[in-house]
Amino acid sequence: MDDQTRVELLKKLETMRDSKVIVYFSYSPLDDQILIPLYKELVAIGKTKNIDLFLYSHGGAVDTPYKVVMLIREFCEKFSVIVPFSAKSAASMIVLGADEVVMGPISELGPIDPLVKHPEYKDFWIPVQAFRFCFEYIEELACISNNHEVTEMIIKSLLAKLDPWLLGDYEKALKASKQYAESLLSKFMLKNNKERIKEVTEALTNNYYSHGYPICRQEAKDLGLTIAGASGELWDVIWKLYLMYEGMFCNVKCCNFSLSTLK
């Protein structure tokens, strides 16, 4: 990465947005490892009027987004998220705690139904909703075939392979996701449109069958989120910054994350 060019672009973005910009760019799951570095960056910036989080992430832990939002808001009056390309799952949860989200033509948010590790394949992550859909599918087959004995046998076989405590924990993860979403929306993004909170929460946790569903800026706006469209010179700066960080990470996608600011 050309560090001088990166610094110049960040300065230009801060001038255009009248803000302090924090960049979080990661191919690894978002988790609490971010909190101490983030706190150090915020202390270095100090209390300020506007903070923009330049965010690229495919998501991560259920609890971390809420912590990130509340920490950043200790240091600013207005908090915005800039999404150059993809801010999915837990990263989309951070967006719900912003006052606005800046999106361009290729920017994507995503559903916030939580992912959990497969009980047997430890490096394989699956949406919690997949368990519900499995049992719903079996019930549908039972109705079609009218063979309840076979259905009961299948369900018993599945349950024998699953730890009931694990299933309970998965259900708690889904409820936690909804709780965090409603809390962030009511405090921040939809604080002036509270009648939409449950509708938006339900849509983001239950209404999308693909965890990777791309929610573009128009769809996000239709949901009720506060979208600031990026175009012209502003979008050019955002996109150039994204490409620079992508170039830096393209050969090291296993590393944790990049967290940077201009002091």
From TrEMBL:
CC per GO annotation: membrane
Organism from which the protein derives: Syntrophobotulus glycolicus (strain DSM 8271 / FlGlyR)
Name the record gives this protein: Peptidase
Top-level taxon of origin: Bacteria
